[in-house]
Amino acid sequence: MAVFVATMIGFTILEPVHLLWINLITDCFPALALGMEPAEPGIMRRAPRSSKDGIFAGGMGIDVLFQGAVIACFTLLSYFIGEYFLDGRHRHRRRAPELGPRQRGRDDGLPHALDGRDVPLLQ
Predict the structure, then answer these.
(1) pTM (2 decimals)?
(2) Transmembrane stretches, by residue range (predicted)?
(3) How far apart are CA 21 and CA 29, in angstroms?
């Protein structure tokens, strides 16, 4: 929700790589935890829910919307604090430290020794 709202107002909070990383972390570990959790006793003896009940029945839809709105507000607030109060000076600190020297070496005309393309796999 935060990414959607930020995109609608013209900001780019997260790049696609960041979204993929968040998706990986937020999906893998909870799925592993659910897969390793033992089954509740008597779960198969319970009656199924009515097919007429919606997915968000019983106030679940309101809870999901409220929690999503709160998370989106705090995410956008933290982004605006970093962008406007810190003048965005911490924006590029998440890049790999080795990227700078490698790129500077290439810009200076040094050979591409760090590429590793000329190194045989089996020596």
Answers:
(1) 0.44
(2) 64-86
(3) 12
